[in-house]
Amino acid sequence: MLRCAKVIGISIAIIVVFAAGNVYGAPRVKVDNPVFDAGEIPQGKEMAHEFTISNIGDETLTITVSPC
Amino acid sequence: MGISTRGYTKTLSKQIKIRTNDRDAGTVILTMNARILEILSVDPPFVNLGKMAPGTIQGREVTVLNKGKDPVSISRITARPESTIGISPEQAFTLKPGEARKFEITFNSGALRGHAGGYVTLDTDLEYLPKKIIRVRAQVVEKKEP
């Protein structure tokens, strides 16, 4: 009975470690200012802005860009 | 991220969708907003003459207004195709702030059939809008016999 409890306990511990690995071993995207207001622009002038996208996770972040 | 403001006259809002493999964030939307200052306005902004018969000429008066704070010089007015579209008067002119000028755009349907069109180009001295384009279109249809 005691041996059975030890096996179950070890199994649970292993599952928790793997689950934790899945939670923390992940990409995390961060965009500081996703909305940019350029204010007033004369017609014809190109509106340009540089957005910074960061990966603050610990796995590779993959991104695909498409216009809405 | 860069966007041309040439075709906009009031406000501009553009969005870009970023799909990621971040399970929590998923898709991120980047947005750019602006208010467009239309310095040289044209009324109507494009000329649609609707249906017209072959071999006829129709005209439409167009008003160009300087809504800016500085004079705007229109150094040249050209029409394409010249065989179909005419401008009167076609002399160069300068608009003071708040000043407007009218001219007429004519369309000669000639032997054309179906949807036809062209454009009138105003060459300006505006830094960001050296050419203001007015599109012209018509539908040339045979008159039905009574």
Report on the structure:
Chain A is an alpha+beta fold and 68 residues long. Chain A has 1 helix and 5 strands, in the order αβββββ. Chain B is an all-beta fold and 146 residues long. The mean pLDDT of chain B is 94. Chain B has a 5-stranded mixed β-sheet with strand order 5-12-11-7-9, with no helix packed on it. Chain B is flat, with a radius of gyration of 20 Å. The interface between A and B is large, with 33 and 39 residues.
Number of extended strands of chain B: 12
The stretches of 5 or more residues of chain B where confidence is low (pLDDT under 50) are: none
What does the largest sheet of chain A look like?
A: 2 strands, antiparallel
Tell me the radius of gyration of chain B: 20 Å
CA-based shape of chain B: flat
| CA-atom Rg of chain A in angstroms | 24 Å
Q: Report, as a whole number of angstroms, the end-to-end distance of chain B.
A: 58 Å
Average per-residue pLDDT of chain B, rounded, comes to 94
Mean pLDDT of chain A: 75
Strand content of chain A: 25-35%
User: What is the number of helical segments of chain B per DSSP (H or I, 4+ residues)?
Assistant: 0
Largest interface: A-B, 33 and 39 residues
Helix-strand topology string of chain A: HEEEEE
Instruction: Describe the strand arrangement of the main beta sheet of chain A, using strand numbers.
Output: 1-4
Compute the number of strand runs of chain A: 5
Main sheet overview of chain B: 5 strands, mixed
Low-confidence segments of chain A, given as residue ranges, are 7-22
